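Contributing new records

If you add data, match the layout below exactly. Sequence lines come first and carry their own label; structure lines follow with theirs. Keep one chain per record. Anything else will be rejected by the validation script.
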Amino acid sequence: MSFTLKDVPLLSRSTIDRAEHIRADEQALKEGWAQALLLHVDRRGRFRRTGGALALEPAVDYSAEPSSNAVFLGTDPDGRHLWAIREPELTGDLTDLRALAGDLDDYTAGILTAAMALLNWHDKAGFSGADGATTATSRGGWSRTTEAGHEEFPRIDPAVICLIHDGGDRVLLARQHSWPPTLFSLLAGFVEAGESLERCVEREVLEEVGVHVRDITYLGSQPWPFPRSLMLGFAAVGDPEEELVFSDGEIAEAHWFTRAEVREALEQGDWSARESGSRLLLPSSISIARTIVESWAGV
């Protein structure tokens, strides 16, 4: 049984223009700053809300010109420049990207995924990986450059995430040691150097649960800025009769669930409904895992 994603994953949606052509134009960035909006993000990835909406403040309230610590995210549908900046501390009504989940609209998703990924990279990129020289932000925060002119760009860590089914009405879901007792999700892992995505799916599934998979199919992708990953979604077929072996220590348990059990769990909500007493809880809507499971279950 093959299937496709029923929706675009939540964090893959956006209504902002990333405006790549503006990033290296310092004059355009300065001119746009006058009407720009600025998102403040603290060290824990939290930001302010106003009346339940994302709090974007006038950039000129922070500084007269673009700050070297701010990153340019693009432009909103009205053409205003959007920026983000890291703050040591914030006060007020704070939340984070994970907590927003179902309350996340496409505009907010576009802002937050870019802001979190860029700011997280800058936190770790103060020195060049080539020679250890100090780097400074350039291109509106989309690169960092040394005094000698060596330029480095944001790092993205690709990871596969795969729904394993039996070709019929059963799906294999797993739980990590640190998760609540009934929270299960798809198997996932980072792509290794010199490895194809399909080979990564095969290796990760075999390492984590001891199952050989076939008929690997690409479904879609989603940015995952925790801190800077790109999740690449797949489906594959496995044999429920094959013994489950947790050889790499990441998985606490895994079970084959029926489509009916998955549909019932989806009706319960996400992992935050863990007081419901359900045998099976599933990831929140912010994760591509949720979209993949919903698509397989046909809900």
